[in-house]
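Why do we care about 3D structure at all? Because function follows from shape, and shape follows, mostly, from sequence. That is the central idea of this module. The next example makes it concrete: a single protein chain, its amino acid sequence, and then its structure expressed as tokens.
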Amino acid sequence: IFASIIFHFIISQSINVFALSFLIIYFLSRLTWMQFRVPEEKIKIINAIMIFGFFLLFSVFLGFIEILSLKTNIFSSISVANYPNPLAKLLNHSKGFYYSYNATAYSLAFFYCSISFLLISYKYKKLLEGMTLVMLFLTQAKFAYLFIAALMLVNVLNRSNGKSFFILLGIVIILYTVFSHISVGLSSTLQIDDKYYYLTIFKNENFSVYLSLFSELKHKSFDFLVSTDLLRPNLNNLIIFLNSSEPHNLFISAYFFGGIIFLIALIFLILKALKNSIYAIKDNGFIEMNFFILFILLVVESLLWDSYDSLIFLLVLTFINSYLYQTKSAN
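And the structure:
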């Protein structure tokens, strides 16, 4: 990973802030789990995660109160016009102290998984997990729905029928990915020149189906790729081409800021972690079971998200590849 980035710097004869951001966060993530092996440091890290989590839970709750009773949007986010989420039209997004409700959802999911580290009674663990899931739902982020659905599947099916769990999880992931790339307009009026409705692919009297923003960004990214120097890709130029927007895809971003060798190294690292996660879920014997579920979902989300500079994504990736997890019997 580090060598491929440096090689790209040499080939492109420039250093970009996107690659530096990834390297710094990736290094800190690996360092965190290296320190996690030391009992004293492990306690400090868990305490830091818990303090962060409780502040986040409280801020999301404040966002919910703000939605119900106030006209401000300090801890909440108002849905924009024509936003393709019917639930968000009934209840605005509670984002807490984060800049984005999506970032809040990723962090809450990480906090939920980290509860398994706590040496507290089963009753209090379940209470804290329940509170976290409620706050996660209040973000109204699409990832929140995906994470909650996956937890329901693993709790209902994986204990008795692991094969059915993986089949249903695969179906949920496919549907999530497909419906993230299309938008549905429930009216006879066409959505024209709207951010979330890129291209009409079906229309009748009652509703219309469009390619979404994520489809548009991928389409334009590949158009840009055709005209760029394949050995010297530049994410800055792509962002300018996309009207000041990143491609909303980890792998496209990774290629443009790190080059083809870095992309291959990153894919290998992710595939290794996915393999570890699938085996761990099949075994169903680890106390950090939810981390493996979370990693699979974060990889899926990375098809719609530039997660290269996300501390949450890189913490989970490095955790899965660090072999720090414990069996339930050992615990």
